[in-house]
Specification:
elongated; 15 strands; alpha/beta; binds nicotinamide-adenine-dinucleotide; 5-stranded parallel sheet
Length: 440
């Protein structure tokens, strides 16, 4: 049987052996979804701690239950390894490695490159490879295709198959998870698209095919750029409303009553997470090679990046109004995760807010039920979450809410505090009429 038909048959019958490169927030849920669908799945990650955990049947990602991992490991559907040589027996590979930015703001492609180089050693006929990591348009064709195929005399679309399918997982979300969030799939050739879609359709409810890998890469960047720009817009709106003496939260709530043509975004202390602050910069970087300046992205990035500084200046003003200086004041930061109810601090604006407060001479402590320890590698500071949160609230000159975790009792916090600076409108139910809350 020709290679393509044979591979599709094996994928449909779940006889194909699946390999997942990178077992993080994206890779582990994906490995679990394929294993639950009946595939034999091997995850490969250089992080020995993750590999050991997985092989012991223990999950280290909050969205994936340990019982689920334990069951799949025991049944032989899921295993993990640090040694890439397991790839020689693998038919279908998803690459889910990090794509951060360098200090200079340029894409850091080192993880994609190292994963591709490892995979290249074990490439063989009859393989399908799907890149899931968010990246600039052209990566799949310009970076993966030569290293995995062309350089090895393997003809793409005939001997092996290559596609891009962006991950859309939203950590902490329960209504939409990997299995029921539609997957966009774009192949290097039509045959690549057909094979990759046949694989993913065996585990994921909806696969939306597009005509090229570039269209799939660009679709992901549109999704995240859309969010980044709209957040930039409401952040600037918050600054404008402050000048006008208008409550930005009331304005947004009012606009959101329009049942069409408006989508609600809320302001905050800055962007966070592994996606929204980073992914649009991949597009902006790529456009520079066409001498094109991605103006919306650059402008939104400038506004969003400045939000921690804006928050600190507002805290300083609020202290000043109460006859105090920021220098020497005790500041308690509540919530340092990049979004509510999760344990992830990647790119969290809390780092910049805390760093700026410290530079201004404030005594800063923080509390986060999900983050026991905070370490800023570049600036070299670290601290532990306070043990007795309510005591710290009572003793602080100001409590600054950065992340609106649901578990906090905001009424009790406001009552025990000297005053609260609320950058998320977390106190909306308790704040009205009280002089003790200053909102962004
Ligand atoms: N986390 C999210 O919410 C999310 C959502 C959508 C898309 N994405 C994108 O998915 C990709 C992965 O993100 P993540 O959040 O899972 O990252 P992560 O840091 O949680 O996990 C990545 C894993 O890859 C491993 N790794 C590093 N180099 C490797 C290599 N050469 N070979 C194999 N494994 C390697 C790391 O050890 C780590 O365990 C990124 O491109 C990200 O932008 C993430």
């Amino acid at each position: 049987m020709p290679t393509k038909e044979n591979l599709i048959k094996n994928l449909k019958e779940k006889k194909a052996h699946v390999g997942i490169l990178g077992l993080g927030y994206v890779g582990l849920p994906l490995a679990v979804v394929f294993a639950e669908a009946g595939f034999q799945v091997t995850g490969i990650d250089p992080d020995l701690r993750k590999v050991d955990c997985l092989n012991q049947g223990v999950s280290y990602i909050p969205d994936v239950k340990t019982e689920t991992v334990e069951k799949l490991v025991k049944s032989g559907h899921l295993a993990a390894a640090t040694d890439f040589s397991v790839l020689k027996d693998v038919d279908a590979v998803s690459i889910c490695v990090p794509t951060p930015l360098r200090q200079t703001g340029d894409p850091d492609m080192s993880f994609i490159l190292s994963a591709t180089e490892e995979l290249a050693k074990y490439m063989h006929k009859g393989m399908v490879v799907v890149l899931e990591s968010t990246t600039y348009p052209g990566t799949t064709r310009e970076v993966l295709l030569p290293k995995l195929g062309t350089d090895r005399d393997l003809i793409v679309g005939e001997d092996w198959f290559l596609a891009f399918s962006p991950e859309r997982v939203d950590p902490g979300r329960e209504d939409f998870t990997t299995i029921n969030t539609p997957k966009v799939m774009g192949g290097i050739t039509e045959a690549c698209n057909e094979v990759a879609a046949a694989w993913y359709e065996g585990a994921i409810q909806t696969v939306h095919r597009v005509s090229s890998a570039e269209a799939a890469e660009m679709a992901k960047l549109l999704e995240n750029t859309f969010r980044m720009i709209n957040i930039g817009l409401v952040n600037e709106l918050a600054i404008m409303c402050e000048h006008l003496g208008v409550d930005v939260w009331e304005v947004i709530d009012a606009a959101a009553t329009k049942p069409f043509g408006f989508m609600k975004f809320t302001p905050g202390p800055g962007l966070g997470g592994h996606c929204i602050p980073i992914d649009p910069m991949y597009l902006s970087w790529k456009m520079k090679s066409f001498h094109y300046n991605a103006r919306f992205i650059e402008l939104a990035s400038e506004i969003n990046t400045n939000m921690p500084r804006y928050v600190v200046s507002r805290v300083m003003e609020a202290l000043n109004d109460r006859g105090k200086s920021l220098k020497g004041s005790k500041v308690l930061v509540l919530g340092v995760a990049y979004k509510p109810d999760i344990d992830d601090v990647r790119e969290s604006p809390a780092f910049d807010v805390i760093g700026l407060l410290r530079k201004k001479g404030a005594f800063v402590e923080y509390h986060d039920p999900y983050i026991p320890h905070l370490h800023h590698e570049t600036d070299g500071w670290q601290m532990d979450s306070v043990q007795d949160m309510m005591k710290a609230v009572h003793e602080a000159d100001v409590v600054v809410i950065i992340t609106n975790h649901k578990v906090y009792d905001y009424k009790a916090i406001v009552e025990s505090s000297t005053f609260v600076f609320d950058s998320r409108n977390a106190t909306r139910e308790v704040a009205n009429g009280t002089e003790k809350v200053v909102r962004l």
